[in-house]
Amino acid sequence: MQGLMMDDYPLTISAFVKRAELLFRDREVVSRRPDGSIVRTTLGPLLARSRRLAVALRSLGLQRGDRVATLAWNHEDHLVVYYGVPCSGLVTHTLNLRLHPDDLAYIATHASDRAIVVDEVLLPLLEKFRERTPIEHVIVMRTSDAPLPAYALDFEALLASAEPDGTEYPELDERAAAGMCYTSGTTGRPKGVVYSHRSNVLHAMTECMPNAIGLGERDTVLAVVPMFHANAWGLAFASALMGSKQVMPGPHLDAASLLELIRQERVTVIAGVPTIMLGLLAALDANPTAWDTSSLRLILIGGAAVPESLIRAFSTRYGVEILQGWGMTETSPLASVGSVPPSMDAATADEKFRYRAMQGRALPFVDIRARSEEGTLIAWDGVGMGELEVRGPWVVSSYFDSPDGAQQFTNDGWFRTGDIVSIHADGCIQIRDRSKDVIKSGGEWISSVALENALMGHPAVAEATVIAVPEPRWSERPLAVVVLRSGHSTTHAELVAFLEPQFPKWWMPDATEFVDAIPKTSAGKFLKSALRERFDRRLLDG
Amino acid sequence: MQGLMMDDYPLTISAFVKRAELLFRDREVVSRRPDGSIVRTTLGPLLARSRRLAVALRSLGLQRGDRVATLAWNHEDHLVVYYGVPCSGLVTHTLNLRLHPDDLAYIATHASDRAIVVDEVLLPLLEKFRERTPIEHVIVMRTSDAPLPAYALDFEALLASAEPDGTEYPELDERAAAGMCYTSGTTGRPKGVVYSHRSNVLHAMTECMPNAIGLGERDTVLAVVPMFHANAWGLAFASALMGSKQVMPGPHLDAASLLELIRQERVTVIAGVPTIMLGLLAALDANPTAWDTSSLRLILIGGAAVPESLIRAFSTRYGVEILQGWGMTETSPLASVGSVPPSMDAATADEKFRYRAMQGRALPFVDIRARSEEGTLIAWDGVGMGELEVRGPWVVSSYFDSPDGAQQFTNDGWFRTGDIVSIHADGCIQIRDRSKDVIKSGGEWISSVALENALMGHPAVAEATVIAVPEPRWSERPLAVVVLRSGHSTTHAELVAFLEPQFPKWWMPDATEFVDAIPKTSAGKFLKSALRERFDRRLLDG
To answer: pLDDT: is B443 or B509 the higher one?
Structure first.
């Protein structure tokens, strides 16, 4: 027996965008331009531009399912594309402006991008790979009066020429593609994730729930996470769904620029990777009275494990709670959040900080399990370690045109995350490591992440990472790589003494390398592969 | 181009119930028994009983899609059925214990109910119609040691006999039927609404959002709305989805019993019809220091228009906000909520109260429009009136086996609500009347609801309704029917003087009838049809 409800009503981005056109016309969108100036608009005119864009792209000959790339910072016109492209049945393909031009050429070609909407300030990057791609139409979002290249169209002129003809956005299948994003895996070619309307909608709905971000129409969201990283964690969609005000930093991700936006726009929720928030904290600590973060109620952090010291610092020194989210491009991205359950209401502040430094419980409709290398299920006891596997409506089912991507999926249809985790009795996920970073010492696993998070709590340490390096007796041993805070000093012995009370003795790093900087990926994560190459023989050569 | 996400992951009740089994085992469920005593359990053991029930029903021979009726008050074992039946692929059919036995016989037969789970205290009601139905299995939730009828099974013994065999709940299609509920329309036979898993899930998700109830795992929900009314507004599902504590009143819906539960269990959200909340207010006003409502953050009211005076009284006298929800059995039920938008932050308290007395803005994915009798769209200007039509994933698409139900749907697939509304520029719905209750005077419409809500703001009035009665010159004219507060008196002339500043002169009731009580439907709504019959000739005979 089937239900007799309107189960054919499709869950599409256009459904909530059209509602936003009706209900949230006056909600502000505030962006910072490349020259540092602020531009203000509201959702009403912004979404009218999205409709014009839909008409314009149709007039260029683009058809249902065609890919429209973006190469842009976070700003209001990128949002125009974000809403207009999927609503018109096309597919937004966000290109990561931090990738090498060779990778961008590969990705734009592999995705068969037919058009690209690009920031004028990023034209020099586009020039480096455009001719190696099938891109036919280059549409430039200008911020100066400099002449355009001959091959390029002016975004503003294009919109002006595209009179909306009164036709509605098309009816779409909720399973139709809405967006694409390539993951920059450390091995193999980048792989494409193709989001559906349904997956975007369900992800945005869930992330708005009170046990997650709890996003409402009185929130002001500052998405520092780039719009080319898994749809800026879905925040542009969630904001249009709930009617939240949006604040966009443009290319200015320095702490002062962000703190100014927070103060000026009364931001309530800021979202970004740990390094961004470490920068904010340092700027606040350097001059606590210079800024005003009293409007902030939540700092959403994802993309890398959040040091407990960071959570503690924001909470105790600035009264702001950090919510850790875990996920990947392949999980849209939010799959779990580290909100503290009521069962811990009586716990000490320390216990709560420790809890919040973990990756939290899976969101509704995200199923999780962890399995050993032999494939046996790991008990939810907080001790056993295994690779996290997930399943759910906003989890990737296969990569785009990628035969070798199949190895990321189990035979029974779960996605293998590559994260080594423990799962606690209440369902809380604790990432112990990336499967490629876990240190295999004498047949046992050492969590590099646990060690580096602990090291970053040492007062002399600005940044720290721990890598596996070959060692004859134990096969692999941990090596710490540390950047000191300016004006501070420490030694390997001191750091080991600092770590010893927190971990088994055999987890202690065999050595510490002090460096000026740790190389990072385009997503701001530590680039451990580069360090491993550099320090490969550190324990062998002595 | 299709998305490449796990779009086949079904949105089912079992998905979040299984998550609750893992994450929310310790969440309390507190119920009041018929004898007034309190019983406490938690979701862990409760959901284990749901699994046993699934095994037991299978062993009775029930198969996928079969209907299992309930005839029960709100309590923890009704929840066991609520979760266990749909998760095992069967269909919960909640019977309204306030209906006439003839109607219950018709409904249980029309739905082909194969089993019924019934409160022992409701067995006398069941006896009055059981033999006229196809019900094969009667399962009694006992609260005494009295012997059972020969045809009946003991719920507890049935569960005890059903050892879970380790088999999982079955994989279900998200469009499979999960529940049924008949609407007691005032014309024609009751009509069945068949909820799907998908519609229940999406409704529960949306109702939890911050712009709606904002339900989280630190909430304690007291659902006074019966579980046989549109799934108790989805609150049992929403609570399991979010991990909220649930408090159930059993058959004790008097103000003192409810206030005791609020005080004792620290209830944060209470949900029910206006008459229930009017009762609470009267009890609080009679003895303001006797109770403690400080834990309450929200009173969700639906089922009938909420008098502005009630919203104002709870807010100003007890610091509790009322959220008005609008919906019908056919809309799962929540379709709109009267939360005040940020654009009104600068408005006066009076303006906000007036706003909250309206039916609010449609939830995401609920499309609304209003059309005149001629079918033309009514502008969103807050003035024009038309019949509200809705569309969305949790709106009925057709009634169960009901050819004459087709008239409730438009040719282009919208559901006709029968409510006469205005829609304001910001999307706020204002119900002017039921289409059958609107007073058609001289070719113009008078809103009976507006008049009766205003009358209920008069200090001498306990309850008031306004009905259309035939009148030779204007075709219909309004007649007020009023119940006085004990110890108060007033006159028709005084009431008209009270109304005159608020409405056009031609809206004034021609007469007022003072009565001891206003007859009500089983849902607690004024039974205007009975009044119309009684006062049909009031203005003709003079």
So the answer is: B509
Cβ atoms < 10 Å from Cβ of B16: 25
Residues of B in contact with A19 (CB under 8 A): 362, 364-365, 367
Are residues B199 and A7, on separate chains, in Cβ contact within 8 Å? yes
Backbone angles phi, psi at A30, to 5 degrees: -120, 130
CA distances from A102 to A17, A113, A498, B303 (A): 35, 15, 43, 62
pTM of the model: 0.90
Taking the C-alpha atoms of residue B122 and residue B125, their distance in angstroms, rounded to an integer, is 5
The chain B residue lying nearest A398, using CA atoms, is: B4
Mean pLDDT, residues A247-252: 97
Q: Give the C-alpha distances (Å, rounded to integers) separating A530 from A534, B96, B215, B304, B345.
A: 6, 68, 46, 66, 53
- Rounded distance, CA B192 to CA B182, Å? 4
pLDDT 10s digits, A194-241 = 999 999 999 999 999 999 999 999 999 999 999 999 999 999 999 999
Q: Does the distance separating the beta carbons of A214 and B23 come in below 8 Å?
A: no
Give the containing element (helix H, strand E) for B390: strand B386-391
Contacts of B26 in chain A (CB under 8 A): 343
CB contact under 8 Å between B206 and A208, yes or no, is: no
How much of chain A is in helix, strand and coil states, percent to nearest 5?
Answer: 35, 25, 40
Q: Which residues pair with A57 in a beta bridge?
A: none
Whether the complex's predicted ipTM is more than 0.85 is answered with yes
Give CA–CA dist A322/A314, Å, rounded. 7
Quick one: how far is CA B270 from the chain centroid? 13
Coil/strand/helix, residue A513: strand
* Contact between B194 and A362 using a beta-carbon 8 Å cutoff: no
Whether B222 contacts B270, CB under 8 Å: yes
Q: Cα dist. A156→A84, A113, A147, A495 in Å?
A: 15, 21, 14, 56
Nearest to A7 among B209, B391, B393 (CB): B393
Range with the lowest mean pLDDT among A1-15, A310-324, B74-88, B426-440? Answer: B426-440
Residues of chain A neighbouring B211 (CB-CB closer than 8 A): 216-217, 242-243
Sheet with B321-327: list strands edge to edge: B38-42, B28-32, B245-248, B220-223, B269-272, B298-301, B321-327, B334-337, B361-362
Structure tokens, B396: 């009925």
